Amino acid sequence: MTLAQLLAQLRGQMASKLEQRNTHAKELATLRGQDDPDEARVAELRKAKDDLDAELDQMQARAAEYEAELARDDAADRLAREVTPGADKPRYDQVARVGAEARTYRPDLDPRGQVFLRDVARAFVMRDFAATDRLMAHLREERVERGEYMNRATGTGNFDGLTVPQYLTDMFAKHAKAGRPFANAIRSHDLPAEGMNVYIGRGTTGTDTGVQSAQGDAATDQGFDDTLLTIPVQTNAGQQTMSRQAVERTSGALDVTMEDLFRAYGTKLDHTLINQATTGLSAVATAVTYTDTTPTVEEFWPKIQEGLAGVETALLDQVTADSFLAVMHPRRWRWMNQALTSKWPLIQQPGMDARSGGLNYGEVYGSGFRGLLPDGTPVVVDANVPAGLGTGTNEDEVYVLSRDECHLWEDPDAPFFIRAEETKAASVQILFVVYGYFAYTHARYAQARKIAGTGLATPTFSGQ
């Protein structure tokens, strides 16, 4: 068995051990939450977890040794090729070299991506050999410059999806970001290059201290326990249908299609973060009920403070002053802006005028924070917040949270993949699909709050 095979085998064994450890940690956390836990079982689980930790430490050290040995072997192999006696130096024209060959798709020749999209359609749907050759050249260039993404795009066939050229991604990224206000505001991470899950640690039992009753008494002993949250990687896909005539004969239609696809991608991602069953923000946030048939902004304000109090109590010293965030539907933000008042907060807030009910930055939708609440909490306005809830199907929700505890993993530099299919051949139409991968969690700690109820039905703009 080669060193590389040994290393792969060892990593598989480590993954199995980590899964066992996580199972023990979860059972241990459940037992410790009971009023009368089985102490013998607790001790057994702690020992099993400690034993697994020791095994994992040894395996990690062995993996480091394998990796170091592989690196030394590679270095020796390179050196051997350089010093091999009797080898004639090849002539200039016999050496393969990396030069300044131009990219197949580049901004000076295809500034809006029309040639790229037309080639995608012709290669996937029309089996155009010249278009296929250009796309294959593009794939080779991407493999050199962004090789870590190619495994995500290519499948078992010739190619299932194509990476969108980076200059087009940069050009149209603003359209994607405008449709995802909440996603832009939370904590961002790079998505790992491989795997269908990402992992994040969560402490379940903290260490403890105690005051000695007398000199020489034993110090309080409570070990720290944690568990790994397993978060699935999901696929986000957007699609756009175009007539074959527009693809083949129309100038300017394809770049508009690209903009629409990017915008749809960003909007769908943001919608998922808020509305997905079980894991979305609306599903995991703890409810703060606001019941009022004649709601006013003055009456609504204490509910926001109740929600923020819940966030701070849940996180304590883990929350920072600049991490609080309020997320609401555009209609709710405008309703708060229209209110007039002769009352102001009893306690003046840092950076806020004593007689101000808040601050509107005057930004347009999708441009970041729209303003500040009277206590200085930033506001994100997001049309993906549901507005058809409740028995009257006319209620929205307002979320308050620590954005540091809302995690989103995405591809670095947000490369999207694209393909085309002639699923509507009878009507002479071509379907373009863009897709990418992401993972998220708002549930590492139960901190988010949502204000919901009849007080958040369709607002009346009456100055109150």
UniProtKB/TrEMBL annotation:
Keywords: Coiled coil. Residues 42-76 form a coiled coil. This is HK97 family phage major capsid protein.
